[in-house]
Every structure is written in structure tokens, then in C-alpha cells.
Amino acid sequence: MNWKVKIKVLLKESILDPQGQAVEGGLDSLGYKNVSDVNIGKYMELEIEDVVTKDKVKTQVDEMCQRLLANPVIEDYTFEVEEMEG
Q1: What is the similarity comment for this entry (predicted)?
Q2: Domain spans of the chain?
Q3: 9, burial (CB in 10 Å: exposed 0-12, middle 13-18, buried 19+)
């Protein structure tokens, strides 16, 4: 089976997000005074082929996030797994 994976990585709440603060300040200076708590992160989509079960895909994706795609010390991640047609 083939799977589509969508991964979202954000800084942990306890970590200062200077890029998010800069964007929030820029939006404020453009007149968007009602915007707050801007967080900048990463979004990834990938396909995994030839894995039989969704649980095995989840295990693999969790391992990939822990080892490369996220920094677990300062980032949290979530992901969705969908079976692809065909």
C-alpha cells in the first residue's frame, strides 16, 4: 500500500519564536492590529510506498521526525497518514 503523510512542525510553546514575533510586528505595522500569537513552523508532505499497515507507517514517520524532520528538544510535531488510491 502507498500512503500520503502530512507533517506539521512548530516550536514548543515554551520556546521564543523570533520569526513569529517579527511577522506579528510586520502585520501590526500594516494595520492588522487584531493578529496575535504568530507561530512560524514547517509543513511537509511525503509519500511512503510499500508499507502494509497504517501503524507501521506511523511508526516510521515518528522515527523520521525524531531523527531528522524535527528537533524534539525545541519542536513539537504532528502528522496525518492517509491511504492513497490505486
Answers
A1: Belongs to the PurS family.
A2: 3-83
A3: middle
Residues 15-44 have pLDDT tens digits of: 999 999 999 999 999 999 999 999 999 999
Backbone angles phi, psi at 8, to 5 degrees: -120, 130
Q: At 84, give phi and psi (nearest 5°).
A: -90, 145
The three grid cell numbers given for residue 63, joined into one nine-digit string = 522515527
Residue 85: pLDDT band with limits 50, 70, 90: confident
CB 26 within 8 A of CB 40: no
Contact between residue 69 and residue 7 where contact means Cβ atoms under 8 Å apart: yes
Rounded CA gap, 46 and 61, in Å?
Answer: 10
CA neighbor of 72 nearest in space, from 4, 15, 5:
15
State pTM to two decimals: 0.90
CATH fold for domain 3-83: Mth169; Chain: A , (3.30.1280)
